[in-house]
Amino acid sequence: FFFFFFCFPLPQPPTMAWTPRFEARLMDKKINVDKLRQEMAEQGFVVLRQFFDKELIESLRSECSTLVEELAVRLQEQGLVADTFASSPLETRLLQLLQAAPNHVPRIFRTELHRAAFFDLFFEPHLLDVMLAVTGADEIRLFPNYTVRPKVPNNEAHTVDWHQDAALNEEGGPHEAPADQRIAAFGHQYGRFKTVNCWTSLVPATVKNGCMWFVPRSHTLGLLTHVRCERTEFTANAGAVGRFSTQVDPEVMKQHEANAVPIETEPGDLVLFSNLLLHCSHPNESDGIRWSVDWRYQDADQPTLRPQQGHVARSLRDMDQEVQTAAEWAGLHFQ
């Protein structure tokens, strides 16, 4: 038995698919891959300043303006608004529509994002290289949770309470899958993150207009107890909805909230964070809308634990499985 004990191989972390050729490409972005992975492992998040170029951000803003224009035309055709506020800027137009037709303006845009500019964001080559580095996977999917969020001022429905994304289902309610399954699908092991959340703002995100807040290192706490909020109505594309329907138990959150830090960003910045990181977004107390986009990537060997399966973003096994062009992306659906 003595000999067997010392000769039996100990469990080893799986070999990463990450290779130096991808690391070399990230030198263009001045990204130190080892440092990035270390910071993600220690803090649960990292902010990459000016990761996206100005042209992409302007393209995204233009696409969001198109979403608002299409909504305004529909509302006018339905007789719900008299004025489409066509001359108003992106920062205020949706707010004016909301004031005119409060029950008919979406809180988020999701199924509408199969457009060219969003392909350029979700499938940006350097970003996918970063995802290979952080996940260690040889195939990653765009997780079925890509969203544009126009956080309007002084509207409680746009307040997001403290939560961990791994604790929520696709409708924002408490996830019912066993905790060990969710940690395996969304957590991290051996420094590899099974799921990585991405966030970027299309306007400056500040404390005043409701930037995100993180509790550093909270991704190491495991899954905390979550409960429904006081207002539990939640519909992904409705206007008259309550607050985010699930939050960390307030008594549990009291132990961690003092450690929270604001994540203020400029357009072009990219925020990466763990699916298990505690985060929230306080009310927007400014005069304009805080436009942002959030999306996720997941090791494609893991289950989504949702009815939807997402789309293959990068594959080292079979490139034919990838979404490769904006036209292909536009022909697909949220799934």
Largest sheet: 7 strands, antiparallel
Strand segment count:
15
Q: Mean pLDDT, rounded to whole units?
A: 90
Class from helix and strand fractions: alpha+beta
Strand content: 15-25%
* Low-pLDDT sequence parts: 1-12, 232-243
Radius of gyration: 21 Å
Along the chain, the helix and strand elements come as HHHEHHHHEEEHEEEEEEHEEEEEH
End-to-end separation in angstroms reads 53 Å
Tell me roughly what share of residues is in helical segments: 25-40%
| Number of helices, where a helix is a run of at least 4 consecutive DSSP H or I residues | 10
What is the overall shape?
globular
Using brief descriptors, characterize the structure shown:
single chain, 335 residues, 28% helix, 19% strand, 7-stranded antiparallel β-sheet, 4-stranded antiparallel β-sheet, disordered N terminus, alpha+beta
What does the secondary structure layout of this molecule look like, with pairings?
Blueprint: H1 2-7, H2 20-25, H3 33-43, E1 45-48, H4 54-77, H5 90-100, H6 116-122, H7 125-135, E2 139-142, E3 147-151, E4 160-163, H8 179-186, E5 188-189, E6 192-193, E7 195-201, E8 212-214, E9 226-228, E10 246-248, H9 250-253, E11 261-263, E12 270-274, E13 279-281, E14 290-299, E15 311-315, H10 326-330
Antiparallel strand pairs: 1-12, 2-14, 2-15, 3-14, 4-13, 5-6, 7-12, 7-14, 8-11, 8-13, 9-10
Helix pairs in contact: 4-5, 4-6
Description:
The chain has 335 residues and is of the alpha+beta class. It has 10 helices and 15 strands. The chain has helices at 2-7, 20-25, 33-43, 54-77, 90-100, 116-122, 125-135, 179-186, 250-253, 326-330; strands spanning 45-48, 139-142, 147-151, 160-163, 188-189, 192-193, 195-201, 212-214, 226-228, 246-248, 261-263, 270-274, 279-281, 290-299, 311-315. The strands form 4 sheets. Strands 1, 2, 3, 7, 12, 14 and 15 form a 7-stranded antiparallel β-sheet that branches. It has a 4-stranded antiparallel β-sheet with strand order 4-13-8-11, with no helix packed on it. Strand 5 and strand 6 (192-193) form a beta hairpin. Helix 4 packs parallel to helix 5 (90-100) and helix 4 packs across helix 6. The longest helix is centred in the first third of the chain and has 24 residues, at 54-77. The model is unreliable at 1-12 and 232-243 (pLDDT under 50).
